[in-house]
Task: inverse folding
């Protein structure tokens, strides 16, 4: 009994020491990490809507049709108060696990752009979705997310038909396309509602 | 000094963690599809093993034998989380590229193995020399594998195009099976190196005897 207690105390002492050290490191790096993430998000939003001057986070009004994807954050993008569209940070499961993308939808029901923020798929294959130098169409230098820019939501969004596939990465291509479509459909439904209801 | 150097070089060839001890192979195959990943992983792992071996060696007389494994895990996990946070804050791109493999350093058998077999019995200075050798041994093998795989599988080194435009990348080398084959080739290269080194030391000792 006494021996067990002693072992527990020794372990607790090591754990406490480790906790203090970690807390110190976190206190130093935490703000930098958050700042980096916020900055990166703003840059990405600007990429999708170059004309935008303000982003407002929407809470929970936009929902995906099924459970295959989830919307982490949704933003209404405006310029001088007039709506430009919706940006959705969408998370879904791909070949290597959770993938996060930012999808922009304009008020004209077209995808304004897609950015892959985080992907854990095979480097050199599925992860090429994020690479700026991997082209699904070499002649026009279109990247995998780049091909969605300007695509109307009335399209089918079917891999190998109207969506070009990443070589040897059909699962990645399908998963990402589904995420873009879900975000697009939900955003466009929201835009429709707000246009009709006058907010 | 000579003894420390011996401990250090031990990890490079003779007892190379990947090629001779053959531990910690999973991450080495997973991250070697590009050279910058390999360098990043090698650096992160070296950081963790140096500090883990140092701390464990410093406290080696205070750690009760029956709870030594949980204690090792606490120490290793703490340093892994630190390097994870540091990389996220100061090298965000590298940290993104490495993804889950940084947190997985916790369960890297090389660190666990060296801590258990070496640091928990030896002096701190020796432990650090051993850790540096193991870290460097791990890193050079990762980089060697990654150079092959990235060059043949993607036509680039460190992201820069090396092969001519017309070169059709051999996807096979980026995929796991290609990793195994390159790994085996590097392993045989190391055996050859080891043999040469052994012959040389034998010759040296023969000379001394004569």
Result:
């Amino acid at each position: 009994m006494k021996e067990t207690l002693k072992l527990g105390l020794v372990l607790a002492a090591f754990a406490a020491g480790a906790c203090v050290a970690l807390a110190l490191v976190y206190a130093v790096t935490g703000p930098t990490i958050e700042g980096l993430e916020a900055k990166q998000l703003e840059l990405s939003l600007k990429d999708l809507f170059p004309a935008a001057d303000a982003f407002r986070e929407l809470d929970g009004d936009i929902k995906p049709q099924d459970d295959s994807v989830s919307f982490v954050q949704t933003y209404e993008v405006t310029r001088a108060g007039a709506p430009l569209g919706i940006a959705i940070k969408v998370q879904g499961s791909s070949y290597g696990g959770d993938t996060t993308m930012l999808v922009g939808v304009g008020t004209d029901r077209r995808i304004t752009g897609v950015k892959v923020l985080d992907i854990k798929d095979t480097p050199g294959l599925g992860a090429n979705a994020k690479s700026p130098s991997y082209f699904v169409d070499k002649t026009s230098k279109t990247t995998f997310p780049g091909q969605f820019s300007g695509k109307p939501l009335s399209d089918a969004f079917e891999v190998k038909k109207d969506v070009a596939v990443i070589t040897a990465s059909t699962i990645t291509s399908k998963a990402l396309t589904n995420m873009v479509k879900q975000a697009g459909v939900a955003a466009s439904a929201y835009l429709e509602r707000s246009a009709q209801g006058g907010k | 000094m000579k003894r420390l150097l011996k401990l250090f070089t031990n990890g490079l060839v003779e007892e190379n963690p990947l090629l001779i001890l053959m531990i910690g192979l999973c991450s080495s195959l997973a991250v070697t599809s590009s050279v910058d990943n390999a360098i990043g992983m090698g650096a992160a792992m070296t950081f963790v093993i140096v500090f883990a071996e140092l701390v464990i060696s410093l406290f080696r007389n205070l750690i009760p034998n029956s709870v030594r494994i949980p204690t090792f895990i606490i120490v290793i996990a703490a340093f892994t989380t630190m390097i994870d946070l540091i990389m996220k804050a100061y090298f965000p791109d590298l940290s993104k590229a490495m993804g889950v493999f940084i947190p997985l350093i916790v369960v890297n058998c090389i660190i666990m193995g060296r801590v258990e077999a070496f640091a928990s019995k030896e002096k701190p200075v020796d432990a650090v020399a051993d850790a540096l050798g193991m870290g460097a041994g791990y890193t050079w093998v990762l980089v060697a594998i990654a150079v092959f795989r990235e060059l043949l599988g993607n036509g680039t080194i460190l992201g820069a195009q090396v092969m001519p435009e017309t070169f059709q990348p051999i996807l096979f080398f980026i995929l796991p099976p290609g990793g195994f084959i390159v790994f085996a080739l590097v392993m045989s290269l190391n055996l050859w190196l080891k043999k040469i080194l052994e012959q040389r030391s034998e010759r040296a000792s023969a000379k001394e005897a004569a």
Chain B has one domain: 2-209. Helices of chain B lie at 2-14, 25-30, 35-58, 68-90, 92-98, 109-119, 124-154, 176-209.
